[in-house]
Amino acid sequence: MAAVEYLGIDIGGTNVKMGIVNSETGQITNFYSHDTVSWRKSGHFEDRLGEAIGLQLIDNKNITKVGIGLPGMINSARVTPIEITAIPELNNVPLVEILKKRFPTVDFFLENDANAAALGEFYFGEERIDESYIFITLGTGVGGAAIIGKKVFTGGRGNAMEPGHTPSVNGKVLERNIGKNELLDLANSMRKEFRGITLLPDDGTISTTGLVASASEGDVLALQVFAKVGELLGENLCHLVAILDINLILIGGGLSASFDYILPSMTTKMEYWLTKYHADGLTIKRATLGNDAGLLGAASLCF
Amino acid sequence: MAAVEYLGIDIGGTNVKMGIVNSETGQITNFYSHDTVSWRKSGHFEDRLGEAIGLQLIDNKNITKVGIGLPGMINSARVTPIEITAIPELNNVPLVEILKKRFPTVDFFLENDANAAALGEFYFGEERIDESYIFITLGTGVGGAAIIGKKVFTGGRGNAMEPGHTPSVNGKVLERNIGKNELLDLANSMRKEFRGITLLPDDGTISTTGLVASASEGDVLALQVFAKVGELLGENLCHLVAILDINLILIGGGLSASFDYILPSMTTKMEYWLTKYHADGLTIKRATLGNDAGLLGAASLCF
């Protein structure tokens, strides 16, 4: 298939980013970013978005497909946002219908941003991967997506894959045990046991960057925190593997910088729980798309 | 759609059952059952099966679709059994190809038996239900299936939905905590704490029938055992709901006779863990197809 170009749009709580993406190389041109708040304040977010799309289409007359990633839940027909916490103005706005009316010759594809980013790994990732995989994002929360046969798995009602909301230890769901803040709380609370054998600060100011840097230098406290993260994540991933029958797992998100330090305990835990059928061929990798994951993911919806 | 007739075949470890099923009423005629062992011993299970199908087709010339349920894993193209523990002779036998060669004008649909039974609830269940639901079977093991948009969800590699193999308490997977034998072990081991306040036998001979009967009479030991089952099942079901975004759950299998006694603790547990989005509208029901679930399920593959 010859390379074509798609317009990818990553709508986030802070910025709306868009760019023309080459379907073969993943190269981004005509990059444009606008702050989200001022569009929200205008009272007509969808019109501001439409105008920005219009400018891109005037400059790029070859574009016939536009992919849009949104930070929240959309309806199962994939045309209307239903719960976008960061941009509630979009809730129940028939976005695809509105855009289609404005640009009748263009097709629009709407998807949750984590799902889009997951799909982007297939089309734009560094190496060729299976057509089915589980995608986990580690950050403030624990997000997820599943790609099955090159398609976003949307489940029964359209919003599948919330691994962060699954039961974990201490009576808390997974992301309330291993989300960014919880992980720092854990590190700070363990700090005093490690007096003299860790260089991490003892005044409650441990940062995730500091934790990752310390782990890379063999710091025992940092390594122990990430081992705990790997253990808890691994246990919940076993549910995903046994339910979805997928044995490739990609880990992305800001905290995936700790990948090397969470992997050993995660693997041990999963080998303990999984049956031979599921454990054979289990592969856990770090996702390869970095800052552009959102935009490339949105463009990948056009394939 | 006018009623048509399908041939349903339920291949089990003990018996192979088949019958002509009316697509509208679910009425079964021409019922035929043969013991599985003698076909296995013949060394040509697929030929014996072919002969039995041939007899049915001679008697029922209107049949053009045959659904077959098998107790194990089949390949993702749904044409070849890959791991049938009870009938290993069928492993890697290209069953659909063989049957199609023998009966060129007939279409064959192969599926795992739990998946087939789950689908049967949609087409032949007592009441109209959603097109998407989770189906759990309680028995010696804990089996499962998911129907999404009236279709069997097969996951990434074809063998999705093994809730019995997901992590649970005591370092054991779910079915090793609440399978039939584990439940009886639990009841027998708790027996002495309930001296004088339970009528269940104290000589290690508690049966599941006895437990269900006692629970219906308010026996505290029986009720406590089922409350524990509901708790553990409920916790693991929360993973299924958050991963699949399905909020209708049907419970079937022999031990679903205990449905009324496991429901309260299961519901409490799920309401504790689930987000509002997932908890709203959550419905847990007992599956309605009884002994004929396997055969009707097999026939439902033909829709």
UniProtKB/TrEMBL annotation, chains A, B:
Tree of life domain: Bacteria
Pfam families, A to Z: ROK
Enzyme Commission no: 2.7.1.2
GO molecular function, one term: glucokinase activity
Keyword Kinase carried by entry: yes
Name this polypeptide is given: Glucokinase
Main EC class the enzyme belongs to: transferase
UniProt key word Transferase: yes
Positions in coiled-coil regions: none
Key words, A-Z: Kinase, Transferase
Alphabetical list of SUPFAM superfamilies matching this protein: Actin-like ATPase domain (SSF53067)
Similarity-based family: Belongs to the ROK (NagC/XylR) family.
UniProt xrefs under InterPro entries: ATPase_NBD, ROK
